[in-house]
Prior knowledge:
The complex is a heterodimer of chains A (100) and B (531). Chain A is mainly α. In chain A, 85% of the residues lie in helices and 0% in strands. Chain A is built from three helices and no strands. Chain B has 531 residues and is an alpha+beta fold. Chain B has two domains: 2-39 and 131-199 and 344-529, no CATH class; 51-121 and 245-327, no CATH class. Chain B is 62% helix and 8% strand. Chain B is globular, with a radius of gyration of 27 Å. Chain B starts with a helix and ends with a helix. Classes of the chains: A mainly alpha (100), B alpha+beta (531). Chains A and B meet through helix 1 and helix 2 of A and helix 5, helix 8, helix 9, helix 10 and helix 11 of B.
Amino acid sequence: MARQTASARYRWLVASRVLAAVLGGYALTSAASTLLALLWPLPLAEAVAASTMLSFVLYTLIIIWVFASQRLRTTWLGLLAATALCTLLSWALLPAGGSL
Amino acid sequence: MAWLHTWTGLIVAWVLFFVFVTGTAGYFNYEITRWMEPERPLAGTPLEYDRVALVENGLDRLQQVAPEAEFWAINLPHWAQAQRAWQDYSIEWTTLPQEGHERGRRGSEQLDPATGGLRTDIEPRDTGGGRQLYVMHYALHYIDYPIAFRLVGICTMLMLVAIISGVITHKKIFKDFFTFRPGKGQRSWLDAHNVISVMALPFFLMITYSGLMFFAQQYMPAAGAVTYGTDRAAIERFYDDLYGAHAHEAVSRPRADIGEMMDKALATWGSDTQLRSVFIQQDSGEPPRVKIGRAYGNAVLWREGHDLSYHADTGEPLPAEPEDNATVQSVQFMFGLHEGRFAEPWLRWLYFIAGLLGCGMIGTGMVLWTVKRRKQHAAAGTHFGHRLVEALNVATIAGLPAGVAAYFWANRLLPVELAERASWEVNVLFLIWGETLIYALFRDIRKAWIELLWLAAAAYALLPLVNALTTDRHLGVTLPAGDWTLAGFDLTMLALGAAFGYMAIKVQRRWLAKITDTAPAARSAVAGGAR
């Protein structure tokens, strides 16, 4: 019985980690690449294209980081905090003509 | 990290194997198309034509068919590196967009360089050719395009993760590269997987990452969506900003002598340069421009710097159009590396071999997964998941190549007048692939491996024979004629047949050795499992 609970717990942890990597990672990558596009001293279209191109490196690194980390809860918190920070900064930086 | 590598790899392995097989074939897609259209004549020495007459004749025709055009182009007969074929004499145009339309209509005509009139071309059979194989590597088949390229994107992203985590898993990557322990079951599969993966690692990283770039904005739309917006107009605006956009005015026949412009261009490039095209366009607020283009070259940015501009009315040289910005150049560079259009034939073979190594990397990884777990499941009784993976492996590694061979068989054997013939060629590919999967699910897996490998070997090895029986473009004709595109196809098929035959023999020996000598095999497998 105890073994079954442990196994169920293990499965939940794996599911949570996969979710953190795939969805949490995608959210953070999206937010970070937006911020990078706004910060990059290039004409806007070029900055968008360049930061979008780089975002795949970032996504890969985040996924690997999530799977390498010891404490899943810290990882989730880190992902959420970083996403929130990037989003807020992007929002503050967004020129008046932006679509938001 | 080993866990991440194993599972990201397994989830997408079958799709990626398909992508690698069809994409690798794509490096020879023009050659494959040529083979699949046997009605076309053998390669001969092309005739020399008077370039000026061809241009004048093209302009006459363009004035008739496209009086209100935003550009006119006359393509001169030349040998093209990208297509690895002779490009025929043709004209192309795009009309000015009509009121309420974003773009004009494109048009083109093939002209006969001897008469100047429309060419009555040979009608080849209806075939998807190499292009259909190549397109499947990012658009799959039977699935809506927007869903398909996203599916492929997810698999590609997982492959990137699998590659990076695979490298991290290897603490001894350099030592492993020189390690091969054959005949040791699981350990040998691991060594083979390592050697193949590391051998072409830069290629795999390049091809995966640059593959993502083709749909980068679709896969990762956030930055563009926030700064530009998501509606059509916003997306249009983004690409106009990125690539630069001009308003165009209707072009008219240049008043200056185009023959002189071509002579000037040849004086700059050298008189043995092949001219590719004459392109006429008028950007609003700019002088009318005639661009003389030479055959595309061997640089990764294969289109860059292959034109010289002249004023259409005075014939004076015009400054070159501004270069693409650094970002666009980076994108084009990655596209260039991915597609390998700049590569001359030997480099193209290297691309092809690297692609085959990609199939090998994925294939050995897939086999390794099952070998590692086989004893465990054999002890615990039949496990459906494991059985399914085994069946998918054999159906993909041996069955899919057999399906591709069947695609070529269908090209030769389906009746020429069959309706929707081109789509039936592909249906045959998937029918064979699907049947091998059913076969692998119900047949003893060892027998399935051996039999399907032999099937693939026979399907490829017999293809030149089928070709000889159904067309007069077989090796007996193409070799003496020195048509290396057609002969090369048949020879490559023979080589693939030999490769699959070799694999079949190897697997057969191994299984037979195991059946006659079960006890030591079981011992070594246990030792392998403990690893």
